[in-house]
Amino acid sequence: MDEINKDYKENYAVDVLTGVRPTGNLTIANYLGAIKPLTELQAQGLKTVIFVADMHGLTDNEPKIVKSNIKEIIADYLGLGIDPKKIFIYVQSDISTELLELTMLLLRHITVAELLRIPTLKDKLKQNQTPENANTLLAIYPVLMAADILIQRSKFIPVGEDQKSHIEVTKLLARRFNSKYGNTLPVPEMQLIKPLKILGLKGLGKMSKSDPDNAIFLTDSPEIVAKKIKGAETANPGEMTPILESHFLLARELCKSDEEFEKNKQFEIDHLLGKKVMGEFKGFLEMLVVNFLSEFQDKRSEVLKQENLIEEIIQQGKNFASKNAKDTLEQIRFSLNK
């Protein structure tokens, strides 16, 4: 597969593609880990596309819940700095006909045994599900994800460590398809995102929307933020723990000025020297979080005030994604019928 002709190598339609599941409130850790990197990519001028993965959302949510969250998640992303003039946003189900056709074609090139060996599926089954009670959507999730990527002919896929296996499945399926039918699907490249270890406020694993008291949500009021940070776990003077390290990281990521960066750094130095600064540091962290959330909530409110804005963004994204999908399937059908 290394001997790929030039036209095939240049058959990418999108530089960067990423998806977001419409599953309710985002946390500040979601922003730092997944959305902030996208704002940095858009600044580089790359042709970047975000799709709202409503079909993936059906794996563990009712259709009406998934549908109700679509506009909300788009408003979140716009409020967090995604510029629809630079990044296309589309809804996955808007190209469902083409997507499901490609998924069916790809499913022919992977076995049931191979699906069951995918680490993320195995982890899910270990946590709270078994083959007897897990719905089949969970098993074909990686193949539908492969179709998402390949139908848009995406060059780079930004992923964390936990999603690497899914991209490997995508590359495997593209290579198997190309081996049988000729060089049709450009093989994507992984763009690993350096994970930010933002732990829960009380140190109970990473910050997650499933544990509201342990997380800061983008919808939290200043009063709620103050209460949560006041109850956050820290460490004794002179000690550095993973949870306190996470708090300093969160503060550093939210600093906007050199003065704030230096203040955060000085708190860390003073703490390690044995000084009692945790009360003051919590006040500083609260100020950073409240300022960030206030700015976001104001921007999000402005987005929602603009009548039909989100519908127009969705339609623009649909036009772009649909053209890519139809072009890809046209190439695939040509290859299948040669």
Account of the protein in words:
The protein folds into 2 domains: 6-196 and 308-336, HUPs (Rossmann fold, 3-Layer(aba) Sandwich), CATH 3.40.50.620; 212-300, Tyrosyl-Transfer RNA Synthetase, CATH 1.10.240.10. It is built from 14 helices and 5 strands. It has helices at 6-9, 28-43, 54-57, 63-79, 96-107, 112-116, 119-127, 136-151, 164-181, 222-230, 242-254, 258-272, 278-305, 309-336, and strands at 14-20, 48-52, 87-91, 154-159, 189-192. Strand 1, helix 2 (28-43) and strand 2 form a beta-alpha-beta unit. The radius of gyration is 22 Å and the shape is globular.
Give the spatial strand order of the biggest sheet. 3-2-1-4-5
Shape: globular
Largest sheet: 5 strands, parallel
Q: How far is the first residue's CA from the last residue's CA?
A: 20 Å
CATH fold annotation of the largest domain: Rossmann fold
